[in-house]
Design a protein that fits this description.
6% of the residues lie in helices and 37% in strands. The chain is mainly β. The model is unreliable at 224-230 (pLDDT under 50).
């Protein structure tokens, strides 16, 4: 089970400017406390011809599109071709990858969005990592703190894994699709190519290539011999 939760099983690490933060990590959520410092250090290395430093710790690719009404706090990097739409709120400690969409009234903080990830409408993404071309439907959110404020654990079929994190939203694998108005509970892990039905409340680990209809109804999407479709 540990193998299924590795960063290189959930994500194509070649699809993010922040790939280096995952080096040497046992589980991908171990990067969450380090995102802010990593973004600051990485930002200092970016080419001024490609990225404009618009604030002390905010770097925006010169071909990215940022709406005048968007609010971006540092440390944040917005990569090439990203689109930050009307009234988006990026609270800092964030990497927004190439061709990403952060949409209307979306809030992002302490998160990495791999290239092509989309959070287009009324989403909250906190203390989370979204893989390459992962997509969250309108109103879908990550819940990053438990109601009793205790430490988050990751639940699998056979064990609970301590994270030693009080704030931990979700890990969405590459091409994961989260339906409208779904809630990803603290510590949710969604595998590559998995689809979450609308209005679901998702807890624990959902395997790759699955369709999640509810907690007791998770079915295979494709046969086990199907390769990732690019």
């Amino acid at each position: 089970m540990r193998e299924l939760l590795r960063a290189d099983r959930l994500f194509d690490l070649g699809k993010s400017i922040a790939a280096g933060i995952f080096e040497g990590k046992g589980y991908p959520w171990e990067v969450l406390p380090e995102i802010g410092d990593y973004v600051k250090a990485l930002g200092e290395t970016l080419c001024e011809d490609e990225y404009e430093r618009v604030d002390r710790d905010v770097w925006i690719a010169r071909d990215a599109t940022v709406a005048p009404s968007a609010l971006i706090a540092g440390p944040t990097i917005i990569d090439h071709g990203a689109e930050i739409r009307h009234c988006a709120f990026i609270r800092g400690k964030a990497v927004i990858g190439k061709e990403c969409v952060v949409g209307n009234s979306v809030e992002v903080k302490n998160a990495i969005l791999f290239d092509g990830a989309q959070v287009p409408h009324f989403n909250y993404v906190g203390d989370s990592v979204l893989g390459h071309r992962a997509h969250m439907g309108a109103g879908a959110v990550t819940s990053n703190v438990k109601s009793d404020k205790s430490m988050v654990t990751v639940k699998t079929d056979d064990r609970r894994i301590a994270t030693n994190l009080r704030k931990f939203g979700a890990m969405l694998g590459d091409f994961a699709e989260v339906g409208c108005n779904s809630v990803l509970c603290p510590g949710a892990i969604v595998g590559r190519w998995t689809t979450i039905y609308p209005t679901c409340c998702v807890r624990g680990f959902v395997p790759e290539h699955s369709v999640y209809k509810d907690f007791d109804n998770v079915v295979p999407k494709w046969g086990e011999d199907t390769n990732d479709r690019k």
